[in-house]
Amino acid sequence: MTSEVQTGAFAAVGGARPESKARSFARLGKLDVYDYYPSIVVALAAVLLPLSRFEAAQGWTLGLFLAGEVLVVMAMVALDDVTGYRDGSDAANYGPNDPLRRKLRKPLIAGTLTLREALAFAWVTAAAGAVLWAGAVAVAPHRPGWTLVLVPVLFVVALQYSYGVKISYHGFQEVFLVGLGVALVLAPYGLVAGRFSWFVLVLAVLFGFGPLMFGVYSNTNDIPGDRAVGRPTVACLVSERGNAVFVGVLSAAEFLLGALASATGAAPWWFVVLMLPVTVLRARQYLTGFRRGDIMTARKQGFVVHRVSTVLLVCAALLHGAEAAA
């Protein structure tokens, strides 16, 4: 069955290989979707000030962790494509009835890579990522016990997103998306700071909300394909109205978390004010998706919201550090 899907998709993109192997591997690793990678900038901003106390070992730790993060995430999304190809969900979601998505973004569906090549790419990048994360731990100026647990757990769980135990196929996709972002901020922060911080936890959760919030719009678009393979996202499990309410609640929760953090002292009083542009953009995204009914445009807006949010989170961390150093 998969060979028939691949053959049909291959013909759909012109019957000849449309791009180089290197380009196809880059697409498989989703290098153009880099929105988890700025987690390292958030962690850096949380420890950068005062500059006089920032050590070379901290820089090396963050650099190695970032390099490993890129490779681990590439492995994760490559394995996601392998599973989507095998179960037919990607063929449904990127089929002829969905012209908004280009098949070339899915090299297995487009026929530009074989299944064997995709699996080899995934495991090589995963192994290289593990080596780099081990290096980050080795050179880290601090190794609190919780980070020594978090880093290997993060590695193992990341690869199980839709492969192995297939976390996203058991009703935990939304939790995974935000949890991955949280861990990718907290783990490097712990290694370079040597402590836990409630404020950094708030930053990490709000960072994780970004991938979550364009993920739920993708899930809304992908309901037919996900239902066909038994992938129980919230969008698949509830009614259309129920899904709209769910996404609306998540949008409000993002603002409320910042407000609660400011009110309780976990974050400075000004934090909720600083993050208000994100609230405005998130409301615009929701109206686009669930009032105008343009889910895919709303999904694209989600990338912009996340990037604006990340910039503001970095600014918040720097301002907080400057206040503490004053």
What would you note in describing this structure?
This protein is 73% helix and 0% strand. It is mainly α and 326 residues long. The radius of gyration is 20 Å and the shape is globular. The relative contact order is 0.12. One of its GO terms (biological process) is menaquinone biosynthetic process. One of its GO terms (cellular component) is membrane.
Distance between the termini: 65 Å
Assign the CATH architecture: Orthogonal Bundle
Low-pLDDT residue intervals, each spanning 5 or more residues: 1-16
The tally of helices reads 16
Question: In one word, what is the shape?
Answer: globular
Residue fraction in strands: under 5%
CATH fold category name: Farnesyl Diphosphate Synthase
Main sheet record: none
Return the structural class: mainly alpha
The residue fraction in helices comes out at: over 70%
> What series of H and E elements makes up the topology?
HHHHHHHHHHHHHHHH
The average pLDDT score comes to 90
Briefly, what CATH class?
Mainly Alpha
Number of strands: 0
Tally of individual domains: 1
| Rg (C-alpha, Å) | 20 Å
